[in-house]
Amino acid sequence: MTSNNSAACEDQSRVFLSRALHQEIRDFSALAWPEEACGLLVASRLSPNRIIRVVFAKNISEQPQTTFEIDPQTLIETHRSARERDELVVGCFHSHPNGKALPSPKDCERADEDGFLWLIIATAHSGALASGLYRAIHRPDEQDKTQSAVARYFRKCKLVDDPS
């Protein structure tokens, strides 16, 4: 599956997010501790590297302290409203209650969409500790020559405060 946003921007290493939206995500994540919080990142179709809104979701995972699963109804409604508003769902966010803002092996397994953004908020009992933003990258797997074999990894992105 190819990303809606991977070819639409020049510099994919920088992503803009207002300080206010970032703080809302951090607060939401801190409140969910010791479970993982989750939600979606939405951008204008014309500026896919500029997050303009966030949709908070219920984590319906059977193991919410170690993984997340965005409520399917929220996912459907968000994609529908994004199409109607000429927007794109460009990424997701979730928290890591273990205090690490790094993608886990499970995150890498689940990174199904090339170019999709993953904002990870490290949380602990004291609140939100750090944020890390990553872009899922898919490349043909050099070890496995079948057409469907894809190596998945994350590329770190710079989170830039968007004052607008």
Task: Please tell me about this protein's structure.
The protein is of the alpha/beta class. Helices cover 20% and strands 40% of the residues. It contains three helices and seven strands. It has helices at residues 19-32, 72-84, 105-110; strands at 14-17, 38-44, 47-57, 87-96, 117-124, 127-140, 150-161. Strands 1-3-2-4-5-6-7 form a seven-stranded mixed barrel. A hairpin with a 2-residue loop joins strand 5 (117-124) and strand 6. The radius of gyration is 15 Å and the shape is globular.
Give a brief rundown of this model:
The protein is an alpha/beta fold. The chain has helices at residues 19-32, 72-84, 105-110, and strands at residues 14-17, 38-44, 47-57, 87-96, 117-124, 127-140, 150-161. The chain has a seven-stranded mixed beta barrel with strand order 1-3-2-4-5-6-7.
What attributes characterize this protein structure?
single chain, 164 residues, alpha/beta, seven-stranded mixed barrel, 3 helices, 20% helix
The level of helicity is 10-25%
Structural class: alpha/beta
Q: Tell me the Rg in angstroms.
A: 15 Å
Given the structure, what is the number of helices?
Answer: 3
Helix/strand order, N-terminal first: EHEEHEHEEE
